[in-house]
Amino acid sequence: MRIAAGLIVAGAVSLLASGAAWSQTPPAKGAASPPAAAAPQAAPAPKAAAAPTRPACTNPNALGVGRTVEIDTTGGPGFGFEHFKDLDFLRDKEVVLTFDDGPWPVNTPSVLKTLAEECTTGIFFPIGKHATYYPEILKQVYAAGHAIGSHTWSHAALVNKKLTEQQRKDEIEKGFSAVKWALGGTSPAPFFRFPALQHPPEIVTYLGTRNIAIFSCDLDSFDFKASKAQTIIDNVMRKVEKMGKGIILMHDFQKHTAEALPELLKKLKAGGYKVVAMRAKTPVQTIPQYDEDLLKEAKLPTVSSRPVSSVVQTISE
Ligand SMILES: [Zn+2]
To answer: What is the C-alpha separation between 239 and 244, in angstroms, rounded?
Structure first.
């Protein structure tokens, strides 16, 4: 495992399922345990996400965006043939780019730079803890016009029998609340990806009651196992050429993925593939109790940003 911050603890690393990755320890503060149970209830309507639009494209050879689809997540639809077969909405030669486990310094900004150069877009599934460490990076993802969902609070394997059902729900709800906090109160899309693509049936059902769509994948890049960028490019191109289309699973958390992306996107363009942007019809409705508990437990900074002149006044000299 790569040590990015000099301190690392393996989170939920599954050797059994694809897409396994990990949540790293914070650079400064400790991880809070999930909050006490809060019964899901109707929340006030989330802030309408006036999603930023992508900037005008100045690269005539860019991969671009083929089409944009809007997803009605009512009832929790599932996407990705690895687990769900019903919603086959991609046309031949269409792909969806997805990035898990961020936001993370260097690698996530590098991915954003490449996507901007190619005038294209993806869906980001951040880990809640990582969002609280690096909210400014997640805000950059949002500002660039990409879709943002959630990938749990701590990347816990939700099939782990040691977790109670309430703890599994806490992982989901706190993850969405953390992303919302990182985005300055803007609710993300109701798009969720299970850590290591492990889907406990009762949580799949729960997500349905929360109107949250589940994203599996069609093409796993296995980038977290790759020792160099070329392996990731080769993995994705081999699979996409075989399947003809699909949702591609990558990790903006991974250095080699960031390195592979420029060449990979050029190869997709050369192969005639088109990127589909997926947007949610309405943002996720977070549960207020989790929003509040997150602030309390994580002791997130609430330092005043008032200018010095408004805080300090000379009253005698
Ligand atoms: Zn992951």
So the answer is: 8
